[in-house]
Amino acid sequence: MGKMKADLIRMVEGFIPFTKDKSGAISSSEIKEKLHLKENSGQQKKSFDKRIERYLTDLADEGRVTHFVDKRGRNYYYKTERNKPSIESMETETATAFLLLEKYSKDLPEFIKSKVNPWFMEAKASFTELPIAEKKIFQNIKITTKFFPLEPEPIRKDITEVVYSALKQKQQIRFSYRKLRLPEEDYIVHPLGIDIRHNVAYLIAQKIEENSIKIFKMSRMTRATLLSEKSVKPRTFNLDEFVKNDYSRSGTKKKISIEILLHKKWWHIIDEYTVEDNWTEKESSAQGNWKLVTFTSFDSARLHEWIWGLGSGVIVRKPAFLAKKFESDVEELLQNYKSFK
After folding, report:
1. CATH no. for 255-339
2. Which of 29, 102, 108, 332 has the fewest Cβ atoms within 10 Å of its own Cβ atom?
3. pTM above 0.85, yes or no
């Protein structure tokens, strides 16, 4: 199969050199030969060459390249300046980035929006010829917030390629996952989506032959492989609802003063997290393995999520209503477990 029109036009333009005058120009026959070899398509060369000639004419008509004919009647092309990507030449990956930016740009100031809106329009236009599977990738990516954001760790490029390809092509993946102070584990999963929380990317996936849906920090994934088996999304799964409900909890939205005891196994968060400006800490004289930490924050879903994530490594001392809230939640959780015995 030949490349799609937008990608092929981009390749045509990519072969045309930048030069101050005609001396560095490239002939249309050279461009066609290089492209035919690069694409290695099953098309007849004659029909393929006609397409390239048409695209070269379009680029010249748009003023993106300069065209001239030599004494022998041969067509030559060159560029004298670097143009911004046009609708036709914007790569799929570039368009994806702009469309994701537009999707989550509601908080941008108007003076920035006015500059990038034309790019959003170009990105949308470049997607008009894409198959449905390409367009649906946006349904699988969410950008959300996180309480005390982690400093993002680097994700291996090959991991990113495998995960995004799996979502795009609806295929299963196999990967190894390193846990904190534990050996790596191997997983085969159905990828369901990606949640990017303050620059930290998480894969949301369902393990093979299991009903539970798990969250994997992508920077801890290693040796990922794209499998040939098709990925299946649970009929009731909705990424928006999962991100909203699964690891979020309610809150009063009021600003409160918080006092917690933090166990030494979690002291590393002081270095790893971007903490509140008024965060204070001191070692507890009564309990050597704990630090007394105080800060102010809004009583929000993000705060509850963070405290729950610390598990047995945190004790909420103040305010009293927050401590009681977590106590009642734990009791309810224990009751649920008892009901399954």
Report:
1. 3.30.70
2. 332
3. no
